[in-house]
Specification:
The strands form 4 sheets. Strands 3, 4, 5, 6, 7, 8, 9, 10 and 11 form a 9-stranded mixed beta sheet that branches. Strands 1-2 form a two-stranded antiparallel ribbon. A hairpin with a 6-residue loop joins strand 8 and strand 9. Helix 1 packs across helix 13, helix 6 packs across helix 8 and helix 8 crosses helix 9. The longest helix is centred in the last third of the chain and has 21 residues. It has a domain of 195 residues: Beta Polymerase, domain 2 (2-Layer Sandwich). Helix content is 42%, strand content 16%. It is built from 13 helices and 15 strands. By secondary structure, it is α+β, with helices and mostly antiparallel strands. The protein is globular.
C-alpha cells in the first residue's frame, strides 16, 4: 500500500465524518415524504380557475441527490434541496411570485404542522428542523415548448421571470461520469451501480421520489467533491461576511471537478487515489472558458446557462475562486510521507477543521493504545503510524 494511498484513506475518513448519518437521513426522508404529500393534496386557486397539483413531482436535487452532502461548519443542520414540480401549468397561468405564495400559503396554513417552521428563500421556502436539517423547496413549472428533455422552469431570485433548470439531467450527468472507472495500475475496481433513486406513489396524489439511498461507501468523484467543498468552507470560516458572499459556489466546484475527473481518466493512469485527486483539482480551471468578453462555466444540461454568470457582474467572485483553488493546491501539495504525526494532524485541522479530523487523531491514539497492549509498538512515520488500525481495503470507498 503506497504512502499516498494511506493519505487518501485519511481524507476519506474525514469526508465520511462530514456526511449525513444514516439516522438523520432516515428522519429526513420521512419528513420529506410527509411534506410532499401535504403539498400535493392541497387545492391551489387562481383568479379564474382552480389548479390541482396531484400530478406533481417532488424530488431531491443538488448535493443530497448526487451524494456530495457536507455538514455546514458551526452547525449540525444539513441542507436538503427539493423541487416541487407542477406540470400542466404554463407561465401564462401563474407568475413566479404567485406560485411561490401558493406553496407558502399551503405550508403556513392554520392546520399545517409546518406553519411555525417555514421561512422564505429567494425562490421558494425552507422548513427548519432545528439541529437536524433544512428542507429547501423550490417550485418549478413544465417547460412545455421542449417536451423531449427534463428541463423545467424556476423563478429567478427576484421572482420576476422564469428561467430554465434541469436538476434531473445534471444528476444523471454527474452519476454517469462518477461511474466511469479510473485507470489504476493495481486495477482496483471502483464500480457501483446502486446509487439511483427509486420512487413511490402516494395514493392518487403526486409522485414523491424517495431520497437517494444513504451510502456509507462512495465513489471517488463523490469523495473528491466532498473534500474540495469542505476545504472551501474551512477556508472561509473566519473571513468577513463580505468575503463569505463571494466564496466559490458548490455548483461551480462540483461541475469543474466532474469535468476534470473525466478529463484525467481519459488521459492518465495513476498509482493511487491521492495522486488522481490532485490531478482532478489541478485541471479544474481548464474548463473555465471565455465567450466574447465573458467567463463561462457551462451547465452541461442547459448549454445556455452560465454558472459563472456572476463572475462577469462581480469579478471579485472569479478572484475568490482562483484564490481558493490556489490555496487548495498548496494545501494538498504540502503533504508527504515524512511529515511528523503532530504536524500532519495540525495540517488536517487547518484544512478541514478540528471536529472533522478528530476521528483521525482518535483512531491513531486508539491504535497506539492497542499496540502497547499487544507489545507491537514500533518506530513509525506520520503515515505508517496509522497501520495499527488495519482498516480492511475493498473495491469501494467509505468502509
Amino acid at each position: 500500500m503506497s504512502d499516498n494511498h494511506k493519505l487518501f484513506r485519511m481524507l476519506e475518513k474525514v469526508s465520511k465524518n462530514l456526511d449525513i448519518s444514516p439516522s438523520v437521513h432516515k428522519d429526513a426522508e420521512e419528513k420529506y415524504k410527509a411534506v410532499g404529500k401535504w403539498l400535493a393534496e392541497g387545492e391551489y386557486c387562481l383568479i379564474d380557475k382552480k389548479i390541482c397539483l396531484k400530478d406533481g413531482d417532488i424530488y431531491a436535487q443538488g448535493s443530497i441527490k448526487i451524494g456530495t452532502v457536507v455538514r455546514p461548519i458551526g452547525q449540525e443542520e444539513f441542507d436538503i434541496d427539493l423541487v416541487f414540480y407542477t406540470p400542466n401549468i404554463s407561465t401564462d397561468d401563474i407568475s413566479p411570485e404567485t406560485l411561490k405564495k401558493l406553496i407558502g400559503d399551503r405550508l403556513k396554513s392554520e392546520n399545517s404542522r409546518y406553519k411555525d417552521k417555514v421561512t422564505p428563500t429567494n425562490r421558494g421556502w425552507c422548513i427548519n428542523y432545528a439541529n437536524e436539517f433544512h428542507l429547501d423547496i423550490t417550485p418549478s413549472l413544465d417547460k412545455m415548448d421542449e417536451p423531449d428533455n427534463n428541463s423545467e422552469l424556476v423563478a429567478d431570485k427576484k421572482l420576476k421571470i422564469y428561467m430554465p433548470s434541469n436538476p434531473k439531467d445534471y444528476a444523471e450527468w454527474f452519476d454517469s461520469i462518477s461511474l466511469t472507472i479510473p485507470k489504476f495500475k493495481d486495477t482496483r475496481g471502483l464500480f457501483r451501480s446502486d446509487i439511483f433513486m427509486d420512487s413511490i406513489s402516494i395514493e392518487d396524489s403526486a409522485t414523491v421520489h424517495t431520497l437517494p439511498k444513504h451510502e456509507e461507501t462512495k465513489l471517488l468523484l463523490q469523495r473528491f467533491v466532498q473534500i474540495f467543498k469542505r476545504h472551501r468552507s474551512e477556508l472561509y470560516k473566519d473571513k468577513s461576511n463580505k468575503d463569505k458572499k463571494h466564496k466559490p459556489s458548490s455548483i461551480i466546484i462540483t461541475t469543474l471537478a466532474t469535468e476534470s475527473y473525466l478529463y484525467c481518466i481519459q488521459r492518465f493512469s495513476y498509482d493511487n487515489e491521492y495522486d488522481f485527486m490532485l490531478d482532478v483539482l489541478k485541471y479544474m480551471p481548464i474548463f473555465i472558458t471565455r465567450r466574447g468578453n465573458e467567463d463561462w462555466i457551462e451547465n452541461p444540461t442547459i448549454k445556455s446557462e452560465n454558472f459563472a454568470e456572476k463572475w462577469n457582474d462581480k469579478p471579485i467572485r472569479k478572484k475568490h475562486f482562483y484564490a481558493w483553488h490556489d490555496s487548495c493546491m498548496k494545501f494538498f501539495d504540502k503533504f508527504h510521507p515524512d511529515m511528523g504525526q503532530d504536524i500532519l494532524f495540525e495540517s488536517l485541522e487547518d484544512g478541514f477543521g478540528k471536529d472533522a479530523t478528530q476521528i483521525i487523531r482518535d483512531e491513531y491514539i486508539q491504535g497506539l493504545s492497542d499496540s502497547r497492549k499487544n507489545g507491537l509498538i514500533k518506530a513509525s512515520t506520520a503515515i505508517t503510524a496509522t497501520e495499527p488500525l488495519k482498516a480492511k481495503i475493498n473495491t469501494f470507498y467509505g468502509k
